[in-house]
Structures are given as C-alpha cells and as structure tokens.
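S1.2 Input.
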Amino acid sequence: MTEIYHKEHLLDRAAMVAMRAMIALQPAADLGPNGRAAFDDMMGKTPQADTVTYEAAEVGGIPGWWCRTPEAMPGAAILYLHGGAYVVGSAQAYRNFVGQIALRAKADAFIPAYGLAPERPFPAAVEDAEAAYRGLVAAGISRIAIVGDSAGGGLALVTAARMTDAARNRSVPKPVAAAVISPWADLALTGESMTARSGHDPLLTHGALEQARITYLGNNDPKDARASPLYGDLSSLPPVMLHVGEDEILLDDARRMAASILAAGSTADLHVWQGMVHVFPANLALLKAAAEALDIVATFLGLNLRG
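S1.3 Output.
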C-alpha cells in the first residue's frame, strides 16, 4: 500500500474555516428520507463540467443518468455509485460531480439510481449495482471502472469484489479499476476515527451513521461482506485508489480498507488530505484540493480504462 499525504493549501485553510462556520449555523444533516431534498440541493451545487452532456437512460433494468464526454473511449465506461448513507442521494443530483470526473478521465460515466432505504433496504443497493454492471457488459462495454463516494464508495468496493468473483467463471469481465472517495467501508462502525475525529468532522456523526445503518440493514449483520467490504474477500481485486479527508470520522475506514486490500495481495493507493472533510472533492467551487483530487482520480481511471 502506498499512502500519500497531501498538505493543506493556505487558501483552502481559509475556505475550510468559513465552511465550518457556515455548517455550524445550519441544522444537523438529516440522513433519512426527509433529508433527501436538502442533500440533492447540496450536491447539485457542484459546477457543471464544460462539454459534458447528460442523458437519462436505463442500464441493466436500472434507471439512471449517463454523463457523456466528447472524447470518450470506445468500449469503456465508469460505473459511478453515489453517496448518501444508502438513504439519501440521487443519480440526478450527482450529474455535475460525476461529469467532472468523466470529463477529466475522458470516459463516459453511468450513475445508476439504485434503491434507497427504507423503501428498498439491504441488499437492494448491491443487487442494483450488480445489475447495472452487467447491463454495461451487455451493451458491449468490456472495460469498466467502478467509482463511488461515502456509502457509494463502500458499495463500489463491494461491487468490485463481487464482479471480480464473477469474472473467475467468465460470466463478466473483471473491473479494470476501482476508485473511492471517503468510503463507508465498515457498517459496524468500529473505526477508531469514529470517536477520535468526531470533534473535527462537521458533516458526519457516529449517531447519524448508526441511524442510517439501522434504516438500511435492519437486523442484518453489519459485517456481512455485501454491506461492509472491509470484511469481504479482497483477493484479486483490480487496482484500487482511495481518497479521504484527514478530519473525517471515516478516515480509518479508508486506512483499514487500503491495508486489507494489500494484505489480500491486491494493490491500493491511499491519499490522505490534511484539513479536509467528508467527500471534499465535491467542493470544486471552493477548494483547490478538490480539483487536485479529481485530477488524480481521473488520471488513474484513464490509465486503467485505456488498458
């Protein structure tokens, strides 16, 4: 495992002070159905990528959105699994953010509208992500990178592991790469940073994640590999890149995930960003680190998608 530490830019430090002050004045984020509109409004503020077009579509029976780029590679695509603790978030709200990644990677990206709890609890998200992957393959796309953030980052790793296993019997091609931002990889919430970073993370709390976990999993085991990739079979994974803010409570999810991937014989590069919080790359309008992180992710994806 390679861990790369990115020091905070001076301008970003000032921006983070202002952002923390603004967040402190707002009500705590609602990681439940009543919080969906506010979450989508927040994600929709990511600047739209120039020259990217958006197309509503269905892939593998799962509705979603394509982010199309003019220089897209034929036969290759990004499968992007959005965040939101398996309860909030939408493919439509993530179009601008994913478009930024697609444009930089020179690859089309599909965002499936996977099922959310409580209407469609575990394992609906896993089943929908797999259906979307298989749908891309059925459409003639053989080089697929799986990407996601937060809960979608955990789901991306789960899907990468499951599709790697499926590739062993040649039912699908193996993913060429996986890249995750602030992944929620352990729904058992056992990471030390859950408490150690609780005073630093203005966006997530242990209590909010615990409530989201209950809504999504019900009585299912949080250490089920379909829920928490940290406890799954990580052997033979494609190359994995992880990005995480040093100030977020999911810091140890990313660190333990990277170490576990390495222990299983696969490769992982972990990028830790000083002073940054949960899914900081979405703040492209404010943070220099956001653009830098997306550029690093896109370079990694482009290299692996080209083969």
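S1.4 Remarks. The first helix runs from residue 10 to 24.
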